[in-house]
Here is the input.
Amino acid sequence: MSEPLAPQHGPQPEEIAKEPPGTPASRLAGWQRAGGIITPLITVLVAFLIGGIVIAATGHNPFQAYWDIINGAGFNWLAHPWDTDIAHTAPYNFSQTLLQTTTLILCGLAVAFAFRCGLFNIGGNGQYLVGLICANWVGVSFVNMSRPAHILLGIAVAAAAGAAWAGIAGFLKATVGAHEVITTIMLNWIAYYLGSYVFQQGGPLQAPGNVSLDIPISADVVPGAQLPVFWGIPALQGLHIGFFIAIGMLVVFRVVLNRTTLGFEVRAVGFNPDAAAYGGIRVRTNYLRAMAISGAFAGLAGGIDMLGYLHHYGTIDVQATTIGFLGIAVALLGRNTAVGVGLASLLFGGLVYGTTHGLQSGTIDPSLAGHLTEIIQGLVVLFVGADVLILAVWNSRRKLRRSEASPQARAAEAVET
Amino acid sequence: MSTYVGSVKGGASRFLEPKAIGILGILLGLLALWLAIPPIQASSPVWSAVAGVLGAMCGVIAVSRGAYRVGGGAIASGIFGASLGYLATRSSSSNLDQVVDASLIAQTLVFATPLTYAAIGGIVSERSGVVNIGLEGMMLMGAFWGIWGADKTGSWFWGIAIGAASGGLLALVHAFFAIHLRADQIVGGVAVNFLALGITGYFFVQLYHGDNIPTGVAQVPNLHLTSASSTSFFGNSFGNLNYMIWLAILLVPLSYVVLFKTPVGLRLRACGEHPRAADTVGINVYLVRYGAVVISGVLAALGGAYLTVGYLNTFNENVTAGRGFIALAAVIFGNWRPFGAFGATLLFGFSTALAYRLNVYSDNAATLFLALPYVLTLIAVAGVIGRTIPPAAVGRPYKKQ
Here is the structure.
């Protein structure tokens, strides 16, 4: 049926016919690999450059501001990593950056996994919220469970909720062909109002003793369901073992995609659904499956955030949540690979923490710098989405050298995104 | 995709066709809501529940006989009708009078207006073949720079003009990446949204130090058709509306005529349906798409500017709060047609206006009610209400040969 948006089927037949046959695959692969590292690097540099221009244009010192942000993110800790005492600023900031990185890895994987199947999951934020809500519910209820079982249940329910939420979009894509971008956007907003509802006054997850307060907030997850903290102390948002879950998920992502039948099918559908169908792969099943797995990552992010350090949530928090959207920038910058997502998460995790709570100097106001993150995020997505820009520059140089149109560059364009 | 597997030829009567049963179910669902609100206003929720359940049952029958779309619609409408009817009857009738009255029409228009501007903008852009997920961001630009302009120049007109220009500028960025660099248009649109959020937030803090803009800002005046103190039905509904609301209402037929009855519109739609063919007959596809995207940005920004300069008279970070996405939903809901989209924005505006009034007796219902536009859109794209047919080449970058 209808495909309201976006090309799902690569180049059009007439364009394929124009491509000269016999593109040297090895050269293409090498070129891709080089472009795969260089494009994100250039992208980040250009984004930070423009961000710096904005800072300078508004009368602040960009070098000082960026230096403050780096310190705010605790990256200066890397210069003396033996000091792990969180009473000191640098190690504490770095542990907080890793806390954000944990969430971003999972939100990034959520977007990346769907991308590999040719789907654009914009709904990471909604899936994150749904996971968070469910984890709060599990964490507040079932008070008498043993700690490992309670934690496992909370995480599993959160992941399942995220999977189900994204699964709606996957199901609609598979059955009636509804475009996943539209459905996930709608599901984001439904999750937003659902979250506002469950935590507001009179909502089902509103803390029982909180009726008199103006700020609607949920009850705390019981200590028996909180993730153990291995760096820092729980009262100061210490780094919890969810960090290792996220790292483990990077490995799972890589192994599933590259070493299993499921991953092969997902990637085949992502490259070309028609060819995959011709090869006997059930495209619709894979759409549903990829969306569900993708949603499970985001739901997991919400779950471990809730059990790991948030412990409670309010209507205002729900409405301010944007970390799921950052997953898009993370996945795009990380080129939808495990290693890339990990590195991009560290960058954005540092940016998120370093421009807000971590920022301590008077050069640039944290409330100002927080928006700088959004600008840089937007620029990164803009430029990564258009790596044609960089490819075009590259291509024109090659053209000059070889004085003929390079087929591999055009083929590369088709393979990109 | 064919979904009507049910018998078309073999049935005994046309009225037993699954599709007809499904439509009956949808009507019953609407009846369930109708029974509970004035003027009928049944005192007990039983009647609504009966009508709603019957509607849902019709839906189940229709689905079981193969009419998935209509049947699904009937199930949804039955459930909605019954639950809303229940909520309405549970409240006291004095509350209900506060919820449903003539000024509800005015409020519906107030909430629908920003959506209408943005939705018409979305139609223009998508009809030319460029997806515009960035409507939200362009609205936000219009909202902030509009009120900034009104504040600095002291004139609402220049404020709106500056706001519209800022939206056009952001749209130009989107157009450059989508058309010239042939980047993925959805990714570009997402980027534009982040960018607008960052830019408006940054400059809001920078220029106003995070405080609300002083409320003395020049505001778009209202058009008084009746005296301001008139309490007649007409006076409460249409008598005292903002100029920009009337402009939005005028924009709908205007955009329809331009898009569907003029050569310019034909060219624009040709670029969205088959750009190569358009190119072959001498239409400059790039130029048309650039123009369409920039116009769409200007229109979306007008919607945002109305929000701040025309209605709220202040600005908050992310003041548009997803209205751009509702507008996007309206574009799809209205099947990429101005009147259809206008109908959708009225529906969404109505549900928002109703939600704010439901606060009178139930916070929780009001919050959930705000999600209704999104739920409806989800149902619409699922193909329940009817097939949505986007422009054939939408989202595909065009490469001149």
Q: What stands out?
A: Residues 387-417 of chain A form one domain. Chain A has 17 helices and two strands.
